[in-house]
Amino acid sequence: MYIGNWIFVILVLISFVGLYKIFEKTGRTTWKAFVPFLNFYEWIKLLERPWWWVFLMIVPGVNILMYAVLTVITAQYFGKRKGTDLTIAAFFSYLYLVFLGFSKEEKFVGIEDIKNRKGGFIKTWLDPLIFAVIAATVIRSFFLEAFTIPTSSLEKSLMVGDFLFVNKFAYGAKTPQTPLAFPFAHHTLPFTTETKSYLEWIKLPYWRLPGYSKIKNGDIVVFNYPDGDTVAVRFQDRSYYQICRDNNVKSLYNQPNFQIVSGYENGMPVYQPLGKVVARPSDKREHYVKRCVAIAGDKLEVKDGILYINDKPAETPENAQHIYFVKSLGFNFSDPAWLDKMDVYVDEAGYMGDIPGRKVESVDSVGLLANQGGQDTMVFRLNLTDAKAALIKSMPECVGIERYIAPKGQYEASIFPHNPRYPWNNDNFGPFVLPKTGETISIDTSNICLYERVIDVYDNNDLEIKGGKIFINGTESKAYTFKQDYYFMMGDNRHNSADSRSWGVVPFDHVVGKPVFVWFSMKDPAKNPVSGKGWISSLTKNSKDGKFRWERFFCFVGDKGLSKSYFVHFLVIVAVWWGTAKFLKRRKAKKAITK
Fold first, then answer.
1. In what helix (H) or strand (E) does residue 259 lie, and over which residues does it extend?
2. In terms of Cα–Cα distance, which of 367, 361, 371, 390 is closest to 379?
3. When comparing pLDDT for 388 and 364, which is higher?
4. Ramachandran category for residue 438: left, alpha or beta (phi over 0 → left; psi -120 to 50 → alpha)
5. Measured distance CA(366)–CA(254) in Å, rounded
6. What is the dihedral of CA 513, 514, 518, 524, to 10 degrees?
7. Cα dist from 228 to 179, 241, 251, 260, 326, whole Å
8. Which residues, at least 6 apart from 174, have a Cβ–Cβ distance to it below 8 Å?
9. Residues facing 375 on adjacent strands
10. Within 10 A of 514 (CB to CB), how many other CB atoms are there?
11. What percent of the chain has pLDDT above 90?
12. Burial profile 452-485: b = 16 or more Cβ within 10 angstroms, e = fewer
């Protein structure tokens, strides 16, 4: 148990002693001050607050704020009205209760005094603001949380720039593990790039409320990025572990000046210092959203770009995208205006000087710089749906198109399990059986790379490999039984998605919820350089020519994509509400004049 947890428990027990003396001063039954939850109920009754506040006192994170709120109210009832007194009561609530209880000079003023007091800043503004924060925190922690799609992993199903709500109680809401945090911030304070928004003085164990459904194959799921337990804060869009693999080092902790490639200019690499490397608890890791293609116990395999689950071809999402090589005769398929019109992202297209895994001399539907009727051609790489590929194929400027598939056995170091013994890639991956709660497997030095992180990190064991033997918690082991379910998450954008093929499986304790509703959507100017700019002018433009994707406003999220837009319905409701409120206000004013 963390020392911060012990300190917190001691402070709570000290506050019970303060409540004992306060109950004594106010003529209440004193022994109730030492009975958890009953003491909160009696305290809330004393202050004539709603009985259901008791439930807020047991919600991690919220209970700390509620302690401060109740202590401030108690201080007011004892005649402490100055800002200095109330500030001390808020920040030192546990000890301040002891002061109020044991100080012979502090007397209980009475409730009527509070009720009859004129509203000041605290009563008029601060109290409503505090409870708005508490209510929003409860909703955000256990019911719905706002979320923005950051990457094009699920492009065409959920798009970069979609603003949506995540349903946290679908699979069961997790209680906060780091309850001391700045409200409404995830892992970094607003307007900063490196400052943590949370304190790790108190750490709670993982616990999840019951949900009303289970994760199914094909569900779109929001989860905490498993590989994000360690992060280089200057390069948060990259896997820290892949940075280490790329630089052939095991760790870069405490090496902020280590130079890594940050990009390329004129074909030459640009180096920048790595910067600070930090560790994050599981509930503060980056939010990712992917499609669950395989659940615990499933056998998964990708063969020549086709996904198989339990040896049967899986249903391909309608909006799935793949890399296509397009041979052009005098037409620039990487022109930003054309890409924007076709709704193809700029960073998903480009001229290719070579085709990975293919010889330049090969002559087929896509020949590199091959001669076509006496004219040179160019080959472009485009990330397309099959329907969009068929449309481009019909264009007279296209003289050849071919979907790229990485050859079987072509090892890619960025692909899980990052071991040449398993030469997997995005298009030929597996077979791999997903870990399931209570399932026991045989382990040895040949397959431990598949399960090393699961056993050591996610299932929280001490795993060591010494002398060709595997030791788990100090005991030599040739088998292992999994402690929780694991899932395989994959993007619909199959060649432009950092997913479970890159960093492995997602443990159930990292699952956050499922996206339920998109309320706003706009294009990213970096990816849509033509129509993605111009806020004001876009208000009068359609989705194709302007920044806003109007057809994606107020849509429900399903496994196959978005429902129809209910934006017009929303506007009608707002108009009716506004008109009704205006009518009632005028009617009330007329009655007042008549009287």
1. strand 259-265
2. 367
3. 388
4. left
5. 48
6. 80
7. 19, 9, 15, 19, 36
8. 168, 206, 207, 208, 209, 283, 509, 512
9. 372
10. 21
11. 47
12. bbbbeebbebebeeeeeebebeeeebeebebbbb
Q: Please give the sequence-ordered ranges of beta strands (E in DSSP) within 153-225, or none if there are none.
A: 162-167, 220-224
What's the longest Cα–Cα distance across the chain? 102
* Strands 162-167 and 511-521, sheet pairing: antiparallel
Q: Which residue type sits at 474? A: G
Q: Which two tokens stand for residue 116?
A: 């009859």
Whether the Cβ atoms of residue 154 and residue 289 lie closer than 8 Å to each other: yes
Residue 258: how many CA atoms within 13 Å on its side-chain side? 20
Q: Give, in degrees to the nearest 5, the angle at Cα 168 between 487 and 283.
A: 70
SS (H, E, C) 316-336: CCCCCEEEEEEEECCCCCCCH
Going from the C-alpha of 218 to that of each of 192, 316, 378, 488, 561, the distances in angstroms are: 36, 10, 38, 11, 11
Q: Tens of pLDDT along 185-237? A: 888 888 888 888 888 888 888 999 899 999 999 999 999 999 999 999 888 88
Cα–Cα nearest to 130, from 89, 97, 95:
89
Whether residue 168 has pLDDT greater than 70: yes
Placement of tokens 């180096």 in the chain: 271
What count of other Cβ atoms lies within 10 Å of the Cβ of residue 274?
A: 20
| Residues of the chain by 3-state class (helix, strand, coil), percent to 5 | 30, 25, 45
For the stretch 459-470, pLDDT in tens is 999 999 998 999
Q: What are phi and psi of 319, to 5 degrees?
A: -100, 20
At 365, is the pLDDT very low, low, confident or very high (cuts 50, 70, 90)?
very low
Query: Within 10 Å of residue 570's Cβ, how many Cβ atoms?
Result: 13
pTM summary value: 0.85
Backbone angles phi, psi at 163, to 5 degrees: -105, 120
**Cα–Cα distance between 94 and 100 in angstroms, integer?**
11
Q: What are the tens digits of pLDDT across the range 118-149?
A: 555 555 566 677 777 788 888 888 888 888 88
Distance from the first to the final alpha carbon of the chain: 69
Contact predicate 275/253, CB 8 Å: no
Both tokens of 567, joined, read 């934006």
Token code pair at residue 103: 């100080």
Question: 249: which 2 tokens?
Answer: 């080092």
| Per-residue pLDDT at 349 | 53
List alpha helices for 314-460, DSSP H: 336-342, 386-393, 448-453
Contact 324, 403 (CB under 8 A): yes
Lowest mean pLDDT among 273-287, 352-366, 567-581: 352-366
In the block, residue with structure tokens 């899980």: 416
Q: Domain locations in the chain?
A: 3-142, 321-403, 440-481, 567-595
